[in-house]
Write a structure and sequence with these properties.
The chain has about 425 residues and is mainly β. It has a domain of about 140 residues. About 5% of the residues lie in helices and about 45% in strands. The protein starts with a helix and ends with a strand.
């Protein structure tokens, strides 16, 4: 890896900025309706207007010890990369948000951890007002199990796919014509042997062990062809492969139903590469990016590469969190919690990967990250730092440069831009 200890020191300056102004906002902002004229000024004049707004999901006070207020609407200054808060829609532990394909509905999980209530988790559908992007709840339904942590709209737009972490299940929720949700048409887990809590290649001194007490579903999405559904079981260290019957809303295991990864590695999030022929899997526990060759005709995947994302010689605690791919498929970005960095990786013409840089996030415990629709800025949600930080993206090298811009926001977890 190119990042030596000397390079790491230069990448992480000793003097870290502190946020004093805006502390009240970081503790959670109540919903503030815009005055009529302000709403008129925000009215979209076309796609370029929508591209400057995003929704941020945040943890709220309670067992998760969050400091946020729900789903925040933020506005991007396309010249500087600065984000500003417009309003917050109250919702409990809206830790993952996603837009439907028409950008008319926002879906958000309610990541409650109520272990004595197996169906405590829920998902809420919100209608997006095209005039000012305010949210109006359509309905909420059970996620099918405890602690929903991820959702995505399936190919075709007729179903919402949900990963329930503590419940260890994958749920399929039908999407109604008005964007609302119906009761789950499928809710399945897997019976697989237990694995150790840490991988054999775990960084030395890493005491932030991942939960391997049972199946722990962390992500689910369809592949680019729309034929297959791929899910990450972080508790059993497997990628699960299914097809989805659009008529019944039920998942059917693929002919090769899973790919077993390194025991204890904890696959968390995944993205598909160009042409849908590569799957890149970020593994939480050992901070390794695993590359799989994927055959979209047969729905099979084969491991071809494993790339450590932390600097050579790293020791101590870390948990990898989010994986992002650039629009052109040339670069990958992985967030590292506790190490507080974004790892930058270049993708070769053959789909294989090498680490090219890392950037300090200027915040604590980075979770979700995203690139805005213009592909000029990357935004990082620093959950325990109570801020979102922004970086300019060098389109040639993929490297990041801090914009000196902070958005104070309580416990941000994920961010999704209108496009």
């Amino acid at each position: 890896m190119p990042c030596s200890s000397e390079n790491a020191a230069s990448a992480f300056p000793l003097r870290r900025r502190t946020l004093l102004a805006g502390a009240t906002a970081a503790l959670g902002v109540a919903a503030l309706p815009l005055p009529g004229r302000a709403a008129a000024r925000m009215a979209p004049s076309g796609p370029s207007q929508a591209r400057t707004f995003a929704f941020v999901g945040c943890y709220t006070p309670g067992e998760t010890k969050g400091t946020g207020s729900g789903v925040a609407l933020v506005r991007l200054d396309p010249a500087s990369g600065a984000l500003s808060l417009v309003r917050t829609t109250p919702m409990h532990n809206a830790s993952w948000v996603a837009l439907d394909r028409r950008q008319r509905t926002l879906y958000a999980v309610n990541e409650d951890r109520v272990y004595r209530q197996p169906d405590a988790g829920s998902v809420t559908a919100y209608a997006i007002d095209p005039a000012d992007y305010s949210l109006t709840s359509i309905n909420s339904v059970s996620s099918g199990s405890m602690t929903p942590c991820y959702l995505s709209v399936a190919a075709g737009g007729r179903h919402l796919l949900v990963a329930n972490y503590d419940g260890g299940t994958l749920a399929v929720l039908p999407i109604r014509p008005d964007g609302g949700l119906g009761a789950a048409t499928d809710n399945r887990s897997e019976d697989a042997p237990a694995n150790p809590g840490a991988a054999g290649d775990n960084p030395p001194g890493n005491h932030a062990f991942s939960d391997h007490a049972g199946p722990r579903m962390h992500m689910i999405r369809t592949d680019p062809s729309g034929r297959w559904v791929v899910a990450a079981d972080a508790g059993r260290d497997r990628l699960l492969l299914f097809s989805l019957d659009p008529a019944t809303g039920r998942l059917k295991p693929a002919p090769t139903p899973f790919v077993a990864l390194e025991p204890g590695c904890t696959p968390r999030h995944l993205v598909f590469g160009r042409h849908g022929r590569r799957i890149y899997v970020l593994c939480e526990q050992d901070a390794v990016l695993r590359v799989l060759d994927f055959d979209p005709r047969a729905g099979t995947a084969t491991l071809i590469q494993a790339v450590p994302m932390l600097p050579r010689g790293f020791g101590g605690s870390n948990l990898s969190a989010e994986l992002l791919i650039s629009q052109d498929g040339r670069f990958l970005y992985g967030t590292q919690r506790l190490y507080d960095a974004v790892t930058v990786m270049a993708v070769g013409d053959d789909g294989q990967v090498r680490v090219v840089d890392e950037t300090w996030t200027r915040g604590d415990y980075p979770r979700g990250c995203t690139i805005d629709p213009s592909q000029r800025f990357l935004f990082c949600c620093n959950q325990k730092g109570d801020n979102v930080t922004s970086f300019r993206v060098d389109r040639d090298s993929g490297k990041l440069r801090f914009t000196e811009r902070f958005l104070p926001l309580g416990s941000p977890v994920t961010i999704s831009f209108l496009s």
